[in-house]
Amino acid sequence: MIQLGKTCRLAVVKQVNFGFYLNAGDFGQVLLPNKFAPDNLQVGDELDVFLYLDSEDTPIATTQKPLAQVGEFANLKIVSVSRVGAFLDWGLDKDLLLPFAEQTRPPEEGKYQLVHLHINRADDRIVASAKLDKFLDKTPASYKPGQEVKLVIAGRTDLGYKAIINDSHWGLIHQSDVFKPLRAGNKLKGYIKQVRHDGKIDLVLNKGTRDELDAHSGVILKKLQAAGGFLPLGDKTDADVIYTELGMSKKAFKKSIGGLFKQGKLRITDDGLYLN
């Protein structure tokens, strides 16, 4: 289905001095300006383009890659502020409008804002909104523990990091399950830890499979060998230090050293880990 604000594959139907016209179905023939056309493009060729409205409200195509499409969330830089709202850099020549009515705080040029992209019903233009809650699903989630999901980090809380799951629901990565630096707008893979009775969703960044555990154990053994058989790491070591040294969460670290200890491959003392 061909939609504004989405990437679609269209066929070239006509070439003119200033570009190429593409068959966009119900939108008719839309222009792909020469500056966005690949070399040797010809009538009959098909290519992936992004559709949006130009300054005259006419559908137009580009081969530029937007940082987000309609229906998605993204952390975008505020490049200017005017009397109609803030303008965001979304990867296209024409900036994206964040209207004043869709803002949650006064915009500051040079700062970043997590927004949702949607079509404004009044004029069919693609606009951004910082009022994220109204674009999330309010129905109870049906995720299963261990299910792989797509996450967008929304920001830090006292408990950990809020994240948007599959562009649909709020979830939380507890601080104890965070093993690498996270920032608002980060897009990454995660897993459902549990859906609570109150509907809140807990997330993890690792699935905790046997393969992952074995990989983490291998990393620890190699680090011990490279360090001459001793690492000053243990249960009381800060999670950030463990991630910096080993690239894993503190929870994964504790599980791994427990398994290695049971196998007799290392000793755990108050000052750290010793290779047997």
TrEMBL record:
Positions of the S1 motif domain: 3-65, 69-131, 144-206
GO terms, molecular function: nucleic acid binding
InterPro entries given in the database record: CvfB_fam, CvfB_S1_st, CvfB_WH, NA-bd_OB-fold, S1_domain, WH-like_DNA-bd_sf
Family matches, as Pfam families: S1_2, WHD_CvfB
Entry's family note: Belongs to the CvfB family.
Protein name: S1 motif domain-containing protein
Species in which this protein is naturally found: Shewanella amazonensis (strain ATCC BAA-1098 / SB2B)
